[in-house]
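Q: Give me the 3D complex with pyridoxal-5'-phosphate.
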Amino acid sequence: MSRVYNFSAGPGVLPEEVLREAADEMLDYRGCGMSVMEMSHRSKVFENILDEAEQDLKDLMQIPDNYKILFMQGGAHVQFAAVPMNLMKNRVADYIITGQWAKKAFKEAQIYGKANAVASSEDQTFSYIPDCSDLPISPDADYVYICENNTIYGTKFHTLPNTKGRILVSDVSSCFLSEPVDVTRYGLLYGGVQKNVGPAGLAIVIIREDLITEDTLPYTPTYLKYKIHADANSLYNTPNCYGIYMCGKVFKWLKKQGGLAAMKARNEEKAAVLYDFLDSSRLFKGTVRKEDRSLMNVPFVTGDKEMDAKFVKEAEAAGLVNLKGHRTVGGMRASIYNAMPLEGVKALVEFMKKFEEEN
Ligand SMILES: *Cc1c(COP(=O)(O)O)cnc(C)c1O
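A: Here is the predicted complex, encoded as structure tokens.
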């Protein structure tokens, strides 16, 4: 067996320890004689898996008691619709457009009500976060929406926007559990788990209890009502059982690493290795305004498409894979999620140095 350094933006790298543990339990989960994939979601054994996952997430993020954790299927895209369907009481919401995911969520919200784009960084290919200290927030906005870490463009909100008293909704898919967050600043935050937490096909929604109501938009599919999931403790229908089990393992792994403050320190150390090199390199350049750089996704270019392609190809042959950038930015992107070890980032930088000398 040989594992590569996987810089994929998503689905992304998972901790090897977690994968090994899951492999050990694949045929017989702790003496049950069956895999977690084969057991009833109503069984005591699975209920324990779900309860522990929820409690561990609560501990990690210090989620207050007046917030609910929902495990829902369908990834982040389903939330693009669920958020307006559940929260657009006045049918007005303000969106800050910092990339493709925010834009897609914005377009989806336009189906259901008046969605306003109150700020955008599209003028410079989303390479920065706009100043959100004094935006024209609609007085009747049901919420203000952001995509907190822009997976494709490599930017991150290091300061949350001033929502002028309106509820903040955040897509945290690609920065989930990468550092501590103050949950009380949000009405709702959610993430597809396949970037930083677990296998694809599951979204975790953390929502303030008073926002969970029967009062959803007409025609809201039953499955998309937050209240249905909250009342059923995420067991309204068959949930993504195996996904929840894997996320639970990653939560325990994160606790063992020292929690989110420790992860933040590690992630900062890892990112600095790469950004410091980019800032001193003759050949490679980062594409994001320095103060808005993400700790998780690092896009960079050489400025020459053929050179970029050569780099990606040679890196892959050296066991550094999935470095091709998103088609809208070009160049390269290294996603250095929680499970990417420091050695992986160092190996990448060493390879970049060597490539620079040779080209
Ligand atoms: C990947 C990603 C999405 C889309 O996730 P799906 O689970 O494929 O729907 C949405 N938002 C962000 C920030 C992402 O990184």
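A quick observation: The chain has two domains: 17-256, 258-358.
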